[in-house]
Every structure is written in structure tokens, then in C-alpha cells.
Amino acid sequence: MEILGEEALWRKISEIYGFKNYNYKKIKPKNLIYITKPINGNLMLFSYNKDDEVSKLYIESGGKLKKAFERCFTNGIYILNWQHECYEVDSYKSFPIKDEDGAWNPNFLPEGDTVFFLSKDLLSGWIADFNNSSIILVGEKFIETIKDLDFKFLSFDR
Q1: Residue-wise pLDDT tens digits, 35-49
Q2: How far is CA 33 from the centre of its chain?
Q3: Distances in whole angstroms, Cα of residue 76 to Cα of each of 42, 92, 118, 149, 158
Q4: Neighbour count for residue 91 (Cβ, 10 Å)
Q5: How far is CA 111 from CA 32, 43, 45, 107, 141, in A?
Q6: Closest by alpha carbon to 35, among 154, 116, 148?
Q7: High-pLDDT (> 90) share of the chain, %
Q8: Residue 31, exposed/middle/buried by CB under 10 A (0-12, 13-18, 19+)?
Q9: Mean of per-residue pLDDT scores for the chain
Q10: What is the percentage of the chain residues whose pLDDT exceeds 70?
Q11: Phi-psi region for residue 22, left (φ > 0), alpha (ψ -120 to 50) or beta?
Q12: Residue 87 Cα to chain centre, angstroms
């Protein structure tokens, strides 16, 4: 994993997704297939158990998401967190944004930051949209993969 020079990437993100900064309330991919899914339930209860430890469901969901990235983005991903370090991940064998307790930093849930987990071409991925407490899924293949993996905190009509 390496930290990226971010300015050019954020300009491209702004072009494709309309994202300007955290004050911008509506991320809307231009000319891409996407869906916006609200989070079902309380994020904090989903993320942590009663002992304030990372929950089993959070760890399982992180594993599913990593599996979706491996299936859909074989060349790796960008992890872009506005005004924080941004990463280029080339291998999923070691996934260094995950700590020893199983929590992701940056988080794949919209708990404080808007974070983009995107394919290297920036045209597919998972966006944790903090301002709207939702997940934006981009790209037809990626959306279908997420549906098939059955995330408990996202509802899909079947």
C-alpha cells in the first residue's frame, strides 16, 4: 500500500461524482450505474458490541466487502478519504487499513467521514456517504456482487 498524491485524484472524483468537500450533501455519479442504500439500523450498535469491542457482524461484513473488492477489482483499489491519507491497494493479501481488532481505518461505514473505495479506473466502488448515512454502490457488476453477498445492514428488493 502506498500513500497517493491526492490533488489530481480529487479533481477526477469531483468530475465523476460531483463531490467537492464534506459540506457537499449530494454525491451523484455522472453517467454511471449506481444505487444509494440507507443503512438499516443504528451504525454504532452494528459496529460495536455491548463491551465496546468491534462486533462479529462488522468483522464479517468487512470480510465480505474485501471479497467483493477481490472479485470485482483484480488490479486493486483506491481508498480516498477527504483531507486524510489516501491509499492505493495493489494486493488484498495484506489489507493494512484493517487493525488487529478487525476495524477498518478508514471505515467502510459512514461513521464520521465520507470515504471512497474505488476501482483503479474510478468508475466502480463503494462510497460511505457520511452526510446522508448511506452507502453508494457504483458499477453494475459491483452492485450485483454486493447484493449476492447479503450485507445485513443494506436492504435490496429481491
Answers
A1: 999 887 777 777 877
A2: 16
A3: 30, 7, 9, 19, 30
A4: 10
A5: 25, 7, 12, 7, 26
A6: 154
A7: 33
A8: exposed
A9: 83
A10: 90
A11: alpha
A12: 13
Distance from the Cα of residue 116 to its chain's centroid: 5
Q: Is the bond into 38 cis (omega within 30 degrees of 0)?
A: no
Question: What cell does 111 get?
Answer: 461513521
Q: Where does the chain have alpha helices with state H?
A: 7-17, 43-47, 56-72, 140-149
Give the Cα separation of 78 and 116 in Å (integer).
Answer: 8
53 is written with which cell numbers?
469491542
pLDDT average, residue stretch 52-60: 86
Most confident of 53-62, 87-96, 104-113, 149-158: 53-62
Cβ neighbour number for residue 21 with a 10 Å cutoff: 10
**Nearest Cα to Cα of residue 146 among 156, 131, 158:** 156
Residues 6+ apart with CB under 8 A from 5: none
Amino acid identity for residue 52 in this structure: D
Angle between the N-to-C axes of helices 140-149 and 56-72, in degrees from 0 to 180, rounded to the nearest 10: 150
